[in-house]
Structure formats: C-alpha cells, structure tokens
Amino acid sequence: MSHLRFHTAGESHGPALAAIVEGLPSGVPVSPDAIDHELRRRQGGYGRGGRMRIESDRAEILSGVRHGETLGSPVTLLVRNRDWANWTAAMSPAPAENAGDDEAMRRVFFPRPGHADLVGALKYDRTDARDILERASARETAARVAAGALAKALLGAAGISVGSHVVSIGGIVAARPDELPAGLNAASDPSPVRCLDGEAEGRMIDAIDEAKRAGDTLGGVVEVVARGVPAGLGSHVSWDRKLDGRLAGALMSIQAIKGVEIGLGFEAAARPGSRVHDAIRLDEAVERGGGYGRIGNNAGGLEGGITTGQPLVVRAAMKPISTLMQPLGTVDLRTGEPAEAVRERSDVCAVPAAGVVAEAMVALVLADALLEKAGGDSLGEVLRNLEGYLERIRARGIFVAA
User: Fold this and answer.
1) 287: alpha, beta or left? (left if phi > 0; alpha if psi -120 to 50)
2) In this structure, which CATH number among 3.10.20.90, 2.40.70.10, 3.60.150.10, 3.90.650.10 belongs to the domain 5-94+104-393?
3) In terms of CB atoms within 10 Å, which of 73, 82, 301, 387 comes out highest?
4) pTM confidence score
5) pLDDT, tens digit, 9 for 90 and up, residues 3-40
6) 10 Å Cβ neighbour count for 304?
7) At 54, is the secondary structure helix, strand, or coil?
8) pLDDT tens-digit map of 153-212
C-alpha cells in the first residue's frame, strides 16, 4: 500500500518552519502561488494578533518538485519567520554571549495555564519554558498548511475538494444554510470570521472586540467538508485503519483543539436510532458511491471507518487561546513561588484560521487514504487505479438495479 507521510520542524521565533512530505506520486501539479494562497488564508481572520502583521508567509520549495510537478521524491517546504530578525540572540542555536541576561534571552519562568509550558518543562527537564512554548506554538501550523496544500493538489486531481467554515465563536452559533454552497471557501473566506451567516458574523465580531477589551480570549467550532470523496477509503479491519479515528487524531493534534465530531456527532447520542442512521437507496447520481445513495448524511460520509461516497463532514472545537492579557495565577519554575503567567504576544481569537488548518489536516489524511486505496508511483497510475475501482463499484450498482 502507498502512504503519504509528513513531518514538520521549527520553532515559532526560529529562522524558519519546515515540512517534509513523502509519498506523493510523480506528476502532481504544484503551484507555489496555490501554497502561498493557503498560507495567507491561515493568517487571516478577525481577532488575530500582532504576529500576523509581522509575518507574510511564503513557502520555498527546496526539493521534490521540478517545472511545476512532483518527482515522486520527498518534497521539502520552508516557511521563513520574518520575526527571526528580532530573536537572533534569544533563539540562537549557538551558545549565547550574554546567557546570564534573562531578559535578553527572553526566558520564561512563569508558565501559562492551559499551554504546554509547565508539563513540557517537567517532561523535558527545562527551567526556561521558552524551550517548550517555541515548538508548542500554533505558529507550527504554517508548515502543516503548506503540506496540506500539496495534499489538496493530489486530491484536486482526483476530483476531491476540501473546504471549511466557522460554525460558532464564543457561544454564538451561526445559522446553517439548508445547503452548503458548492464553493465553500469562496463563500466563507470573504467573511472576517469565515462565517456563512451575516447576522451571526456581526455578533461574533462584537464578542471578539469585547474579549479584547477584557484581556480575554475566545474559542469556537469549525466545520470541514470534503466533496467528491469516493466510497471505500479507510477500513473496518483494524483500529488504526479506521478513517474516522485517523481524522479525529489528526484534528485533535492541532493546537487548542479539544473535541471532534463527525456528522451528527454528539447530537446523535441524544436521538433514537431511527432519527440517526441514513437509509440506503439506489441512486445513479452517486457515482462515487457505486450508485448507492443515502437519505440524509447524518453519518457525515463515514460508516464503520469507511467513506460512503457522501460528503465528508467533520467539526473541530477549539478552546480559547491560553495566553491572556489578564493573566491567571501560576508559579515560578525556579522557586515554586506564586506568580502571574507570562504575557506572550497572542491572538484574541484564531477560530477562522483554525478552519484553514483543519482543512489541511483533513486533506493530508484523505490523501493518505486515497493512496492507500489507489496508490501508484505516478499521478496517472493513481487516477487509473481509482477509475478502475469506481467502474467496478458502479457496475455493482447497475447490476443490482437491473
């Protein structure tokens, strides 16, 4: 089986972030502009902090691509940190000349509740939480989004699209349209909070403004929708091959994500089964489901850890950002004495950006599952394998109908 793997590296205020993506077949079209577009989307959204005014993320392709196509070898992407110029001493890989100056070294001795500061310092035996928070920072997601853009390129060639929108911010829930727009990102991106409900958008913006005045932060929920996903991705045969588990793990790995739902999610637990499960019927229009359709999509496009051919619908809940301008109580890592948590430059609300990161993670998981099902060394081979499989399941539906 073919697989897609990726790895990121880099610190928030280091020279750069990097991503290595391995397993892409040759011939996948790669546009630097498309990658940079995804990076710009991640930087947007109402409620972002000062860091986004400093950075202007662009990806440098260092390997694996020639003349706009992948070679089949690992692709290396580099996203430089412009703020590195202000941190060359504090984040220098070499021993510092003024190592005794805690302020110049920007050391952090007062860990922030809700962040990895304290537990990371305990695990890795550090006194300066800067050694932890630099890597734990959500700045790392820029590398994920760059990698996700490559996955989207593969999926797009196979007729699969991935988009997202904001469902709620700070307890303000957007009204869901009867039918999501076909171009989901084209509809949600123009909104400052990436919301499809204009009335809720205004209230979300007001809530973010109020949280900023109070020195507080807000979380929310984003929804990712993938269309064109063929039936049969994932598997029921082993726990680590179930696609719903793989998606949940990928989304939960995003900084500040604390919950994942698929389809109805938690609401299904409050309903009787007759109002949860999607009745099956023959429907020739559902070509990527073998002509087997569903009445509704409460399952969110997944049954038994396997895609159904319906749109894949996944939601992720983001907690409020841990850095508060009105800091909570903590302790001094050097002495154990009570203290106030450090104030790091941060966002008030990053939920709109979280949707873009969630898209990237869903795309990476789906691209891996696609290669697992229809893998090959070249894009042409992958597409031929996929079409052969789709023809077979369509023939099954036609046979039953006949």
Assistant:
1) alpha
2) 3.60.150.10
3) 301
4) 0.96
5) 999 999 999 999 999 999 999 999 999 999 999 999 99
6) 13
7) helix
8) 999 999 999 999 999 999 999 999 989 999 999 999 999 999 999 999 999 999 999 999
